[in-house]
UniProtKB/TrEMBL annotation:
Domain spans labelled PDZ: 303-338
Keyword Transmembrane helix: yes
Keyword vocabulary terms for this entry: Hydrolase, Membrane, Protease, Transmembrane, Transmembrane helix
GO molecular function: peptidase activity
Transmembrane segments: 20-37, 58-91, 103-125, 137-157, 247-277
Protein name: PDZ serine protease
UniProt xrefs under Gene3D superfamilies: 2.30.42.10
SUPFAM superfamilies in the cross-refs: PDZ domain-like (SSF50156)
GO biological-process terms attached to the record: proteolysis
Superkingdom of this protein's organism: Bacteria
The keyword Transmembrane is assigned to this record: yes
Organism: Mesobacillus subterraneus
Length: 389
């Protein structure tokens, strides 16, 4: 019996890979990867990461978070109607057409599905999809929203700091300055408990089990979660982690309010409303704080600041970091990109750098240079006006 159930579960999971959000997310990640590479080549003539970078970030951490959410959902017996799953997928596709990845946050996709389900409940649309819905589904959707928001925060905290993309823009004074941009898409596959024979009617192979007098199906759902953030006044790692912690805090608040919804249904509505308003407020807060900060990656009177480092380059092997300021090259003071490369060219076999790190401490870095090494060490700077207009 247990073996039969396991085999049915594996078959059901395999067929679930036909979920449209799964393939659409692959397409979006590839599209944003190609778009990023084109922009970076326009700014620097090279790209910081290859076009497959976004695709490589799509799954690993999301699978772990999806597993945790699955255990909570199944362990707590939280049941969601198939209609909610359909509406979440529809909202994901709809918001993606805006090309603003931040709108793929759970607050917007699950939140939109929540209110759409409340509006469509009882209406005979698409067969019986929206009829006979239990009121207890609304706190369950709010709990799912809270769990996905907490998961979003952990994704931002642990993954979004990797491979932030350097970018050149014009300041209000017309000067060329550097910023870092994060456009990231993750897939969080999680098992959902679907009530009754909703799935077994069209799919006679779908596994069903019973708890007490009720029967349920397990459905593996790929939830797409997006993030978009431009950073100008802080180190990218610090800015992204700050936002991640804030999103986790919002998710915990939503969970506490949503749990009350099982006794007082109005609390579920309040939880989802707070999720949407709170997530938008966090974005606006981050943007306002950025506007009030001076540009971190701007030209300095002394030294040249590292805006980006190419993967596998000599600079990466020398443990140079984004945000550090190179003051000397081979014993010569440098003040811009041109003087940096002029000093570097004086000794093509070896380079010694004096670096002011992000904590304001001076350190010395040196390395032998070999044939085949990147001729510019693999460092991206805020470029001269004549090189980028």
């Amino acid at each position: 019996m247990a073996q039969d159930w396991f085999l049915e579960l594996v078959k059901g999971t395999g067929r679930l890979l036909l979920h449209p959000v799964f393939y659409y997310s692959l397409f979006l990640a590839a599209l944003f990867g190609v778009s990023r590479v084109k922009r970076e080549r326009k700014n620097f003539t090279v790209r910081s990461e290859d076009a497959f970078f976004e695709l490589r970030q799509l799954f690993p951490v999301g699978i772990v978070i999806g597993l945790v959410i699955s255990l909570i959902i199944i362990g707590a017996g939280i049941v969601l109607p198939f209609a909610a799953i359909v509406l979440i997928a529809a909202a994901t596709l709809l918001w993606s057409f805006t090309a603003r990845l931040r709108l793929l946050a759970p607050a917007y996709t699950v939140g939109a599905a929540f209110f759409a389900l409340a509006f469509l409940s009882g209406k005979k649309i698409v067969g019986d999809l929206f009829t006979n819905l239990d009121e207890k589904i609304y706190p369950s959707i709010a709990i799912l929203l809270a769990l996905l928001t907490i998961g979003e925060g952990f994704l931002i905290l642990k993954n979004a700091k990797k491979g932030t993309s350097p970018k050149l823009i014009k300041s209000k004074r017309g000067q060329t300055v550097g910023v870092h941009e994060v456009k990231r898409l993750w897939l969080v596959p999680a098992f959902m408990l679907i009530p009754g024979n909703t799935l077994t009617l069209p799919f006679d192979w779908w596994p069903v089990f019973t708890l007490g007098e009720n029967s349920y199906s397990l459905l593996l759902v790929p939830f797409a979660i997006g993030m978009q953030q431009q950073i100008k006044g802080m180190l990218p790692r610090e800015a992204v982690q700050q936002q991640g912690r804030r999103v986790i805090g919002l998710g915990i608040l939503i969970a506490l309010i949503a749990a009350i919804g099982y006794w007082y249904p109005i609390a579920a509505i309040a939880a989802v409303s707070i999720a949407i308003i709170g997530r938008e407020a966090l974005t606006l807060l981050q943007q306002m704080q950025e506007e009030n900060r001076p540009f971190y990656f701007a030209k300095k009177n002394q030294g040249v600041m590292i805006l980006g480092i190419l993967r596998g380059s000599p600079a990466e092997k020398m443990a140079l970091e984004v945000g550090e300021n190179i003051t000397k090259v081979n014993g010569t003071y440098v003040h811009d990109e041109s003087s940096f490369y002029e000093a570097l060219s004086r000794n093509r076999a070896h380079c010694k750098l004096e670096v002011l790190d992000t904590n304001g401490q001076i350190r010395f870095v040196q390395r032998a240079l070999f044939e085949g090494d990147h001729h510019e060490l693999g460092i991206l700077f805020v470029q001269d006006e004549k090189k980028w207009g």
